[in-house]
Amino acid sequence: REYQKRLMDRAMDIVKDEFQPATWQAFWGTAVEGKAANEVGAGLKMSAGAVYVAKSRVLARLRDEVKRMMDEEDA
């Protein structure tokens, strides 16, 4: 569990700068802080749909990065 947390923290550090601040904040607010998409969107002046899209984009990129890091460790 601790390994997974460190891996995810590292992946987030790597990919964070690839996204606009509002995209990252939409991801963070919903995926990490557990807030509702409409609540996060209101604060960012985004629709709930745009928040879901942003969250999805960041999660997909994080999955790719974690896979890359794990493949690198296996090599």
Could you describe the 3D structure shown?
This protein is 81% helix and 0% strand. It has helices spanning 2-15, 21-32, 37-44, 48-74. The protein is elongated, with a radius of gyration of 13 Å.
List keywords for this structure.
single chain; 75 residues; mainly alpha; 81% helix
Brief summary:
This protein is mainly α and 75 residues long. The protein has four helices and no strands.
Q: What percent of the residues sit in helical stretches (DSSP H or I)?
A: over 70%
Apparent shape: elongated
Structural class: mainly alpha
Give unreliable regions as ranges: none
In whole angstroms, the N-to-C terminal distance is 22 Å
* Major β-sheet annotation: none
Rg is: 13 Å
Number of strands: 0
Sheet-strand content, in percent, reads under 5%
Order of helices and strands: HHHH
The number of helices is: 4
Overall mean pLDDT stands at 95
